[in-house]
Specification:
The relative contact order is 0.10. The strands form 4 sheets. The protein has an 8-stranded mixed sheet, with no helix packed on it. It folds into 2 domains: 91 residues, Rossmann fold, CATH 3.40.50; 105 residues, 3 Solenoid (UDP N-Acetylglucosamine Acyltransferase, domain 1). It has 2 helices and 24 strands.
Length: 212
């Protein structure tokens, strides 16, 4: 039996705890050991959670430990994941019992696939990508590393999403659309064709957000 440590004990970390105990393999392949967070009182006032054991920086990894990162910001996620990897830590992938994952789907390490998601055939998902509840990913999509797909986003067939991309709630990517690395797609936005790297887009159709 492996013992899971959740990186982050704030709001998303609490969500991931309850999702973890409803995920494939809980109780047979892993249990939950606790949280890692540098805010030692992050769970103060909340009941029903395991304790915060340590910060990521101070934690000494044990041989039966495994990890998942419950941080919604892709850049902080990359930062803390790398700290654990540098210590020799092992990440697992969490797939909620209610998620649908079709045949011929490739999923990397450290991913989170939450309740009600649908991942259709011949999809490839890289490492450390988080897919929040009720996301739909169409056939033949290719998704990179360290992405964050928030609830109710939808990807048509043959969509490509590169590394470090954030899709906010209810974003829609039409078939064959491509979102380049480190881009952000705003809530409710519709991507028709392409989003350039390092840009934020919003609207229907999605266009770059410009500052005044």
């Amino acid at each position: 039996m492996k013992h899971l440590l959740i990186i982050g004990a704030r709001g998303f970390g609490r969500e991931i705890y309850y999702s973890a105990i409803e995920s494939i393999g809980y109780g047979t392949e892993f249990d939950v050991k606790g949280f890692l967070d540098d805010k030692a009182d992050a769970l103060e006032g909340y009941a029903g959670y395991p304790s915060i054991i340590s910060s990521v920086e101070d934690y000494e990894i044990q041989s039966d430990d495994v990890f998942i990162c419950a941080l919604g910001d892709v850049h902080w996620k990359r930062h803390y994941v790398q700290k654990i990897l540098d210590k020799g830590g092992e990440f697992i992938t969490l797939i909620h019992n209610s998620a649908y994952v079709s045949k011929n789907v490739k999923i990397g390490i450290g991913c989170i696939i939450l309740a009600g998601c649908r991942v259709h055939c011949d999809v490839a998902i890289g490492d450390f990508t988080t897919i929040q509840p009720y996301v739909v990913i169409g056939h033949d999509c290719h998704i990179g590393n360290m992405c964050q797909f928030n609830s109710n986003t939808m990807l048509g067939g043959f969509v490509t999403v590169e590394d470090d991309v954030t899709l906010h709630t209810s974003a829609i990517l039409l078939p064959k659309a491509k979102v380049h690395a480190n881009a952000v797609v705003g809530a409710g936005s519709v991507v028709l064709r392409s989003v350039k790297a390092n840009t934020t887009v919003f609207g229907n159709p999605a266009v770059p957000v410009t500052s005044k």
